[in-house]
Design brief:
alpha+beta; Beta-Lactamase; Heat Shock Protein 90; 6-stranded antiparallel sheet; 5-stranded antiparallel sheet; 18 strands; 51% helix; rod-shaped; binds adenosine-5'-diphosphate
Length: 635
């Protein structure tokens, strides 16, 4: 089965591949920011342009409105100088200015006229520019007698022409708009008629306007404004020559004529500009909030004046800034989305590639695993066969070993058999003799002697029974079962079977066996080992003047040691090297097979112990076997 493919390929850089591919490069971020900045700029410009267009439209309307109101305000008085110039009493006075009667008549006429048309003053100048009659003749600030020849409205007055002039009254410091015309008789100028118009009404209606508006004279001096602080301010710094000219005409008295703090930022066309107002710094009077304004300017017909209306551009700037932010954000969003989609596409492609590679690797791995598995199955089967063969061989070996042990045992029995026959022959001969004598005693009627003979038969029979019993028990094939075995009892059994040899060969038995020592082993096989070792010892002592066999037990920790020592010739070095090899014997053919020690060592090893041979310190050989100690008493 194909396992699910991992979601992300492993990255060599320690970061998952998808994360790496999703991370936009600095260049892309820069490009995104640049696009956002461009979009922001375009958004700003477009919105600002549109808002500016709308503002300009409404500014144009306001300009029309203000211009119309000024024109109306001024023009409604424009005919009055002419009216005055046609009045007979005025002409008469002009022709004889010293005539007090004529002056009084003229004064009263002018007073009435002024009151009825609502102007500030109406007055007459003689040809030298001196006031000879005035509507305010009877007031403390009367113009009568004053020399006004320095005023442009006197100097420029002409026949049939209305001269216009805005200025501040030198007597009463009241600002006003002066309209003048020449008084004439025929072509001869006899004086000047002047009407002074107040523009306060207009100013009052302007002051409530939501956006500033101003009227400036030909030098840029503000003569009328919705912002009181601007009045008598200048749109631009005044030229010294102009300043001197204004001073000479006493046009604005001693006003300082400082700039109103307007800087042109951009000229849109001849009539409109974007300006920045910085404020005039006079806290006592309200001034517009500093910032960008649109100015629309128009010349007032028939005057050298310019009317200017201001439109606050804060709203347009705010709109443009919002649009710029929106455009930049939208661009960022869209380009970010596009970038993410791009990255995602790339990531998906990478993932698909990685998956394909993984699939390939997986397939090849599966193939390899299958190959290896089948090889492993074959190897395993072979191994299984080998194991079986080995266990078969082991079984065979074990059977062979057990057969060998049994063969060794039979060899021992063979060796014992000659002596055993002798052992049995003796009691049998005794039995024959005793039984013969017994019959005779019975025939003689000697019952007591017969009984005594029969009593001698019993131990003989018992000994024969024990001998055959021991032999039979020894010859029996061992069960191989381990148990607690008494060393004493095993050695006694072996000694019983070899008893005839010990006695016959007059061997001195030194018995130092501890009766309580028990070993963990198979009693039958241990007896076989004992028979072998004691038999060899008896063989070795042959030829010695005094033959001795020493049997000794010892305890060492968890082990039991049994030593079988003789006083024979001992074990030469070349013999020691081959002692435990099978079929190694120094005995005459028929006397030994050379299997005894090899089988004995194997049996002891099977018990978990060992068998060693050394030369005893005095003389003879010493065979020591060490066996595991039984933890329980022998049965
Ligand atoms: P076998 O007794 O049939 O020869 P063993 O394996 O029992 O076979 O003994 C091998 C040989 O070891 C003997 O032939 C003998 O030369 C030597 N041997 C064994 N026991 C003794 C001993 N107690 N003293 C000297 N030599 C011995």
């Amino acid at each position: 089965m194909t396992p699910p493919i991992a979601a992300s390929p492993v990255s060599l850089a320690g970061r998952p591949g998808w994360a790496r591919s999703l991370a936009p490069s600095a260049l892309r971020i820069l490009a995104m920011l640049a696009a956002a900045a461009l979009a922001g700029w375009i958004g700003y410009e477009a919105t600002f342009e549109r808002a500016l267009g709308e503002i300009r439209g409404s500014a144009g309307h306001r300009l029309d409105l203000y211009a119309a109101s000024i024109e109306r305000e001024i023009e409604k008085f424009a005919a009055f100088p002419i009216v005055v110039s046609y009045d007979r009493s005025i002409i008469e006075l002009a022709m004889a200015p010293t005539e007090s009667e004529r002056r009084a008549t003229a004064d009263r006429y002018l007073e009435r006229l002024n009151a009825s048309i609502g102007t500030l003053a109406v007055y007459i100048l003689d040809t030298t520019g001196r006031c000879i009659a005035s509507s305010n003749w009877n007031q403390y600030d009367s113009f009568v007698g004053r020399d006004l020849s320095y005023r442009p409205y006197y100097r420029n007055a002409g026949i049939g022409h209305i001269e216009r002039f805005y200025g501040i009254g030198t007597t009463n410091r009241e600002p006003g708009y002066f309209l003048s015309t020449a008084l004439h008789v025929g072509d001869a100028v006899v004086g000047t008629g002047v009407v002074k118009v107040g523009l306060q009404q207009l100013e009052r209606s302007w002051s409530s306007a939501e956006a500033p508006a101003l009227l400036a004279d030909e030098h840029g001096v503000v003569v009328l404004s919705s912002i009181p602080a601007w009045k008598y301010g200048t749109l631009r710094p005044l030229d010294p020559a102009v300043r001197a000219e204004i001073a000479q005409a006493q046009q604005y008295n001693d006003r300082e004529l400082n700039p109103i703090g307007m800087t042109v930022r951009q000229r849109l066309d001849t009539d409109s500009s974007i300006v920045e107002l910085s404020g005039m710094g006079d806290a006592s009077q309200p001034t517009p909030i500093p910032g960008l304004y649109l100015t629309e300017t128009r010349p007032m017909p028939g005057t050298p004046w310019q009317l200017t209306v201001f439109s606050d551009l804060r709203g347009a700037v705010d709109q443009a800034e919002s649009a710029a932010a929106l455009a930049a954000l939208a661009t960022l969003f869209v380009s970010g989305g596009a970038l993410a989609a791009l990255q995602r596409n790339r990531h998906i492609k990478e993932l698909t590639r990685a998956r394909a590679a993984l699939q390939l690797a997986h397939d090849s791995l599966e193939r390899t695993v299958a190959e290896r598995t089948s090889a492993l199955v074959v190897a395993n089967a072979r191994l299984q066969e080998e194991v079986e063969e080995r266990s078969r061989a082991e079984r065979t070996l074990r059977e062979a070993q057990s057969g060998l042990v049994q063969a060794g045992k039979l060899a021992v029995i063979g060796q014992l058999s000659a002596g055993m026959a002798h052992e049995l022959n003796q009691p049998l001969a005794a039995l024959a003799t005793i039984s013969g004598n017994t019959i005779k005693y019975l025939e003689r009627g000697d019952a007591a002697a017969a009984r005594s003979n029969l009593d001698r038969i019993r131990p003989l029979v018992e000994r024969m029974a024990r001998l055959t019993g021991e032999l039979k028990s020894f010859a029996r094939k061992s069960s191989g079962e381990m148990q607690a075995v008494s060393i004493r009892r095993t050695i006694d059994n072996a000694l019983f079977l070899l008893d005839h040899r010990i006695k016959r060969q007059s061997v001195t038995l030194v018995d130092e066996i501890d009766g309580g020592v028990t070993a963990w082993c198979d009693p039958n096989r241990l007896e076989q080992v004992m028979l072998n070792l004691i038999g060899n010892a008896l063989d070795a002592t042959e030829g010695q003047a005094e033959r001795r066999l020493t049997l000794r037990t010892g305890l060492c920790g968890e082990e039991v040691s049994v030593e079988i020592r003789d006083n024979g010739p001992g074990l030469p070095a070349d013999l020691l090297a081959h002692l435990f090899e099978p079929f190694f014997t120094t005995k005459a053919p028929g006397a030994g097979l050379g299997l005894g020690l090899a089988i004995s060592a194997g049996i002891v090893r099977d018990f978990g112990g060992d068998l060693t041979a050394t030369n005893a310190s005095d003389s003879g050989a010493s065979f020591v076997m060490r066996l595991p100690r039984a933890k329980e008493a022998a049965a």
